[in-house]
Amino acid sequence: ESFLNGYQEAVASTGQQASIAALLDLFLIAKAAYEVVYEAANRPGWIDVPLRGLAHRTRHLLGVEALA
Fold first, then answer.
1. Whole-angstrom Cα distance, residue 48 to residue 51?
2. Measuring CA to CA, which residue among 18, 24, 22 is closest to residue 6?
3. pLDDT of 47 strictly over 80
4. What is the distance between the alpha carbons of residues 55 and 67, in angstroms, rounded to a whole number?
């Protein structure tokens, strides 16, 4: 929450509000991809957790909602 608040304040000062959502999506995809790699290397039994997050964010970006 602190990160998002600070980020929003910084972006607001530049006048580029539309960038907030796009960059947040980018950060979430990067984090999910990192977690997929981490779990694959360290806890393969848990890889479904970050894969679900990555799939969810990808569906969101593509505008495809509930694909279970």
1. 5
2. 24
3. yes
4. 9
